[in-house]
Design a protein that fits this description.
Blueprint lengths: L1 E7 L3 H13 L5 E4 L7 H9 L4 E2 L7 E2 L4 H7 L3 H8 L4 E3 L7 E4 L4 H15 L2 E3 L6 E5 L2 E5 L4 E9 L14 H8 L4 E7 L3 E3 L11 E10 L2 E12 L3 E3 L1 H4 L4 H5 L3 E6 L6 H14 L15 H11 L13 H12 L1 E8 L7 E6 L16 E3 L7 E2 L4 H18 L9
Parallel strand pairs: 1-2, 1-10, 2-7, 10-19
Antiparallel strand pairs: 3-6, 4-20, 5-6, 8-9, 9-10, 11-18, 12-15, 12-17, 13-14, 13-16, 14-15, 16-17
Helix pairs in contact: 1-5, 1-12, 2-5, 3-12, 9-11, 10-11
Bound molecules: flavin-adenine dinucleotide.
């Protein structure tokens, strides 16, 4: 096979890149090469099947890694121009998940994939599925791409093969390893938008508990970031969108990362202390395990008193000393957990780390191999939960596609 532009990876960034490249260079043959039997499997699964495709509040705060994601995002059409005006997808701002999340109005991710494929087939983009590229050989006038069954020569190539997160969607980091072998610098890899592991003994009794609060990540006494939302306790990890948004910190602070949760952020420590003193008066004859009944779900209420006291909780509430009430108050306002690991790739939605900024120019072209472009999660960018990762995928895909198409037959760039 001999083609002008090969796009390795038929995910969000690859489809956006192929559309963008073909729009710029209509006479060029553009082919999306996908290892799975169909393109866009992860798009279908995104946002719990609803596809949180962007966010109205894009800022540097929401992106992590060595590349400046916001610079790329601001340089290309926004979600309204790309999705609504170009692809005809009606969008809405969702009330679930992260504030400002943009969803297709249909509430169905398949609408997004169908519209992307409609556009790419109308433009004449080809798809080659079930083709797992395992070798990329740079040549003087282009690249040879090899899979077990195919050898493809392309003049230019866009690498849109994603990272390591959620390998059941085809992303096992295989191309990242190939790029490493070709001399590319890869920033430290770790799961992002993922749960954080804690010692199971530290959360014994909390499995299944969900509680709204404010959670902060610390390294020693240094506050790194605070998020609000619902915490979810599992057997050996804590999850919930607010925790997902702290997971990327594990890459830099492995070994010293800890979480501190304020379970009643709307109540000051003084007010909380007053409330607990009232409970002590009114519940004097009850066992301590009933002390926080009404404030939290049963398992959490019992856990909090157990964790705060060094004695039996079957004693009566009236036996609680002022010091013990202060300790309970302290745990409610600052329940601490040492992070002992990041989640498995299966449970991660994004990849922290990837092809380092020093390897690409401002057009997302490789500095090591002319004619080779990158987009999406393979690059060293991880966004927060809430539409930020897909927005990065589309925007970087549009930019890589546009620049890759320049100078090819019939290019529309003046
Ligand atoms: C369950 C889940 C839900 C998510 N929900 C959201 C959400 O609602 N909003 C949001 O912003 N982000 C969400 N994300 C993250 C977001 O989907 C990804 O960041 C984004 O899809 C990355 O796009 P990409 O094109 O870089 O890579 P991918 O979409 O991962 O696509 C890469 C493609 O390359 C193919 N490929 C890999 N290696 C090869 C190879 N060697 N040869 C050929 N093909 C190859 C893969 O099969 C895959 O199809 C979610 C992620 C998951 C896992």
């Amino acid at each position: 096979m001999n083609i002008d532009i090969a796009v390795i990876g038929g995910g969000a960034s690859g489809l956006a890149a192929a559309i963008s490249a073909k729009e710029i260079a209509p006479a060029a043959n553009v082919m999306v090469i996908e290892k799975l039997p169909r393109v866009g499997k992860k798009i279908i699964a995104s946002g719990n099947g609803k596809c949180n495709l962007s966010n109205v509040n894009i800022s540097e705060y929401n992106y992590h890694g060595s590349l400046n994601a916001v610079k790329v995002i601001s340089a290309v059409p926004d979600y309204k121009e790309f999705f609504t005006e170009k692809l005809g997808i009606l969008c809405t701002i969702g009330s679930e998940g992260k504030e400002g999340g943009v969803y297709p109005r249909s509430n169905s991710s398949s609408t997004v994939l169908n519209a992307l494929r409609l556009r790419s087939s109308k433009l004449g983009v080809d798809e080659l599925c079930s083709c797992d590229i395992n070798e990329i050989i740079p040549k003087k006038s282009g690249f040879i791409l090899r899979s077990t069954d195919n050898e493809i020569f392309c003049r230019r190539v866009i690498i849109a093969a994603g990272g390591y997160a959620a390998p059941s969607f085809g992303t096992d980091g295989s191309i990242m390893r190939i790029m490493k072998g070709m001399g590319y610098k890869i920033s430290k890899i770790c799961p992002a938008v993922a749960p954080l592991k804690v010692d199971p003994n530290d959360i014994r009794g909390l499995k299944g508990v969900r509680v709204k609060g404010e959670i902060s990540a610390y390294s020693g006494n240094k506050l790194l970031r605070t998020e609000k939302g619902e915490l979810q306790f599992n057997e050996n990890n804590i999850s919930g969108i607010c925790v997902f948004n702290l997971a990327y910190l594990f890459s830099e602070y492995e070994g010293s990362l800890k979480l501190r949760a304020d379970l009643l952020p709307e109540i000051s420590p003084q007010k909380l202390f007053g409330y607990l003193m009232t409970l002590r008066r009114e519940r004097g004859e009850l066992p301590i395990e009933e002390f926080l009944t009404g404030a939290f779900v049963k398992n959490l209420a019992v856990y909090l008193v157990k964790r705060s006291l060094d004695r039996s909780i079957s004693n009566s509430v009236s036996s609680l000393t002022k010091q013990e009430i202060l300790a309970i108050c302290g745990n409610i306002k600052g329940l601490e957990f040492k992070v002992c690991g990041c989640s498995s790739w299966q449970h991660a939605q994004a990849t922290m780390g990837g092809i380092h900024n020093s390897c690409v120019d401002e057009n997302l072209q490789s500095k090591l191999h002319k004619g080779l472009y990158f987009c999406g999660e393979i690059l060293d960018v991880a966004g927060d939960c809430g539409g930020y990762n897909l927005q990065w995928a589309w925007s970087s895909g549009i930019m890589a596609g546009k620049n890759c198409g320049k100078g090819l037959p019939n290019d529309k760039i003046k």
